[in-house]
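Margin note from the TA: students keep mixing up input and output lines. Inputs are the sequences; the output is the structure of the whole complex. Example:
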Amino acid sequence: MNITVIAPGSLTTVQDGGRKGYLACGMPCAGVMDSRAYADANRLVGNRPQAAVLEATIFGPTLRFDGDGLCAITGAEMTASLDGVQLRRGVSFPVHAEQTLALGFAAEGCRSYIAFRGGIDVPLVMGSRATDLKCRIGGLSGRSLRSGDAFATGEDGVLRPLKGLPVPAYPQAVTVHAILGPQDDCFTPAGLDTFFQTAWQLTPQSDRMGLRLTGGCIESIKGVDVVSDGIVFGSVQITPKGQPIILMADHGTTGGYAKPATVCSFDLPLLSQLKPGGTVRFVPVTVAQARQLAPHPTLIDRIREVLHHE
Amino acid sequence: MEQAHILPSGDRAMVVEFGKTIDEAVNAQVQALAASLRDRPLRGVTECVPTYRSLLVCFDPSRVRFETLARRLLSRCSALSNASSVPGRILTLPCLYDGEDLPDMAQLTGLDTEEIIRIHADRDYLVYMLGFLPGFVYLGGMDERIAAPRLATPRTVIPAGSVGIGGKQTGVYPMASPGGWRLIGRTPIPLYDPSRDEPILCRAGDRVRFAPINAMQFDRLSAQIADGSWSPATLLEGGVPS
């Protein structure tokens, strides 16, 4: 099935699980922001877990199909309709030739995922189909969707589709768990108190690279410059003005600002659904506590992983 | 030398830190651990990022516990501390020294441009780490006589392959990018090419040597790269095309 972009939405990109194995070369991972909604979208249409989908931000795209297929929408609650008929999130639904799928504004959450049975067939670049906007590779010529773009579905639809999956809520005031380190020793006790006691607000400058927060000033001992070291998805770095930035899917591989803490990986999907104006609080946990809090994969999840990560 | 220690970096990564400064001996320990993990991987480790003074180790918590991996990494470090450091490769990077900031550089350093070029090409630079952009090498050990402050107003686009100096550092832009370094030359070699089997040519721990070439050699190399007859292996052979 071919899909034509009638309207691209505010920022829609082709994404998958990201470009693995090149961090040591300075190559960002990119990939989806909300890995949970991404996994659900692929499960609904019976795709391999690593199939490429569309990630739509705040305002979704309008797409036209030239054949029959199966779709699913997960993540943010954007108004969605197929030829004018309202659609629900978290279900798989058939589409037919000449039909138009139109997504609108995200009422709840920030990012929606649109999966097509078979995945999106764009070339693999360094092992991934993810669009990396900064390096301008992956997806559709390394950029976000434009009107008139067209792409085809691929061959990742090898599993049985599901009718529906539970849809999580996406509150716009979230509390996330964070593990101290690697550079909490660069900050005063008062600075760390500010970090953990402030309801930080997401600014409009936030993007796939980082969520920029405002609401307080974190006091450091001797400034925030450190000798550059490695960064992960969820690292919190503090700018020279004392403002936190949570580094997200498109983060660079290294950085020279001190990082007092790192958001636990299982809270990143929730954070990815925060819109500018939303608030976030950090609660400190130890590595052992984080392990207890992490959702444990079920036996079925494990089997699925073994079967599909060749 | 400082003892290696572990710093948490969330629930799926940790930092093995060997020191807090930019120092070749500290970095040699980082490279030795990275090389050891490449040769004999530890269970659950998904990816490693060597930096100036530490190694970021990403892991899958469903395959190994943080505490277990931390213990194994530290014991790997102590086993390495007596071993000699890993010999890195030497990459010879042809460079046409025709950068538009050379005249300014001459004024800032009080040296003539030939002298700046001679000094710049006279050393092997350690690749401490890669970061900032795919294939961007953080090189150490530049002669301070050719150090010069960054431009007050960064350029909006610097072409891929540009060789520059920013403060006490020198480096190569692997892809077109905004930047504030002073441009002294350009290499025809694409350090980063996502369509190549080996997309990024340099690795942390390598040494880079700049070899001056003339415009004709630059054009010949560019033509070879364009028609596919150039091989990255030539960088290791040390020679410059005639």
